[in-house]
């Protein structure tokens, strides 16, 4: 199942180049009172919603995907957890380029741990990334994004995939400089998620997916998730050893070599095997 959020917060089931509007299913989520859930209620209920989504899709209006505005498939993640330098070839690249490492000694992910990006930085692929501090280098990072489906606390890697709701393409946009990672990477619009959530039954083997990003048609990053230093299961074990992952939390698994600058006017085209492609414009803020 491929599920998107589109236009004015509508829920869509993606079939080929069409989207079926199954927004009526969201009525099942019910009213909320304070405190609002500290997780994404749609993702939390996804297993129960799936039969209703398939039923609603039978009679739902279909629209061309090309005619809708795609939002982040997760509306309200509590956390965006991200892996720094998690491909060997990118580790070598970072150590090699002063512009990327800024004379901060680069340690391996097992030592430095993971980091958090503000959920406030999250957008969908139809919205442009709006660059700030354009006098400095702003880079693209394409990453496989894993969306957590149920509360995951101290999960072992053997059980990790039972906690996954689905997968998407993630862009971890990055302002280069000496500040803390979380500060530089949490700028409004600096996390892109899309084009939809692909459920585990349709992803094939998530540990063997090709990923790529081009800027204005020029190839920049090419990799396969088989080359991750910490695997998807390792990352879920690592993150959940520190905090409970909630339904809708997004895990950005890290980026391979080939990170490079973008400027206003650029168009980024990112693809991940068995997920799809997003085209994201770059603007100045
Ligand atoms: Mn990254």
Q: How do the helices and strands follow one another from N- to C-terminus?
A: EEEHHEEEHHHEEEEEEEHEEEHEEEE
How far apart the termini lie comes to: 35 Å
Strand count, sense and barrel status of the largest sheet are:
12 strands, mixed
| CATH T-level fold name of the largest domain | Fumarylacetoacetate hydrolase, domain 2
* CATH class descriptor name of the largest domain: Alpha Beta
Heterogens: manganese (II) ion
* Average pLDDT over all residues: 95
Number of helices: 7
Count of the domains: 2
CATH homology superfamily name of the largest domain: Fumarylacetoacetase-like, C-terminal domain
Helix content: 10-25%
**Strand-pairing-aware structural class:** alpha+beta
Number of beta strands: 20
Proportion of strand residues: 25-35%
Morphology: globular
Uncertain spans = none
Which oligomeric state applies? single chain
Radius of gyration: 18 Å
A few lines on this structure:
This protein has 285 residues and is α+β, with helices and mostly antiparallel strands. It has 7 helices and 20 strands.
Question: In terms of topology, how is this protein built?
Answer:
Elements: E1 2-6, E2 10-15, E3 18-21, H1 41-44, H2 46-59, E4 62-64, E5 70-71, E6 80-82, H3 88-96, H4 98-101, H5 109-112, E7 115-117, E8 122-123, E9 129-131, E10 138-140, E11 142-148, E12 164-172, E13 174-175, H6 181-185, E14 191-198, E15 210-215, E16 218-224, H7 232-240, E17 250-252, E18 260-261, E19 267-272, E20 276-284
Parallel strand pairs: 6-17, 8-14, 9-20
Antiparallel strand pairs: 1-2, 1-5, 1-14, 2-3, 3-4, 6-7, 10-13, 10-18, 11-12, 11-17, 12-14, 15-16, 15-19, 19-20
This protein binds manganese (II) ion (MN).
